[in-house]
Amino acid sequence: METAEKIIEKKYQQAKECPITIFMEQIGGKWKPVIIWLLLLNEVMRFNELDKAIHGISQKMLSKQLKDLEKLKIVKRKSYPVIPPKVEYRLTEKGMSLKKNLTLIMEWSNKNLK
Questions:
Q1: Please, are residues 80 and 87 in contact by the beta-carbon 8 Å criterion?
Q2: Run of H or E residues at 107
Q3: DSSP 8-state class, residue 31
Q4: N or C: which terminal CB in the chain sees fewer CB atoms within 10 Å?
Q5: C-alpha triplet 87, 89, 93: angle, nearest 5°
Q6: From CA 36, how far away is CA 19, in angstroms rounded?
Q7: CB within 8 A of 4, min separation 6: which ones?
Q8: Taking 70 as the threshold, does the pLDDT of residue 42 lie above it?
Q9: Can you list the alpha helix ranges (DSSP code H) found in 27-98?
Q10: What does the alpha-carbon distance between residue 83 and residue 108 come to, in Å, rounded to a whole number?
């Protein structure tokens, strides 16, 4: 009987096929996990609130990251027809499903990387 490690080794010999690689390419990086985590903690945030909460991110980069997360259907954007413009961001059900995994990553990081 083959072990899980052998099955994984055979199935994902090329890194581009590995689900972890796909995850890191689409949702990993410096800013997306932070955006997702903030929306997990706060439920709904406006653009300026996210901008203030994430030290070091430019507004252009924040906008791009939010658009990427929208395309992946992880974040939902709601725009209100008012002046000045009011835009809110929240996680979709798909985005909320990341909570358990991100919590485990955070706990592992606190134990092993500080």
A1: yes
A2: helix 99-112
A3: S
A4: N
A5: 145
A6: 19
A7: none
A8: yes
A9: 32-42, 47-53, 59-71, 93-96
A10: 44
How high is the pLDDT of residue 16? 66
- The predicted structure's pLDDT at residue 12: 62
CATH fold of 31-112 reads: Arc Repressor Mutant, subunit A (1.10.10)
Phi, psi dihedral angles at 45 (to 5 degrees): -140, 145
CA-to-CA distance for 26 and 69, rounded, in angstroms?
A: 9
Burial class of 70 by CB neighbour count within 10 A (0 to 12, 13 to 18, 19+): middle
Is residue 77 within 8 A of residue 15, CB to CB? The reply is: no
Residue 36 is which amino acid? I
Six-digit token string for 92 = 């979709």
Tens of pLDDT, residues 59-97:
999 999 999 999 999 999 999 999 988 999 999 999 999
Model confidence pLDDT, tens digit, residues 10-40 = 666 666 677 888 888 888 889 999 999 999 9
Number of helices (H) and strands (E) in the chain: give both, helices first. 7, 3
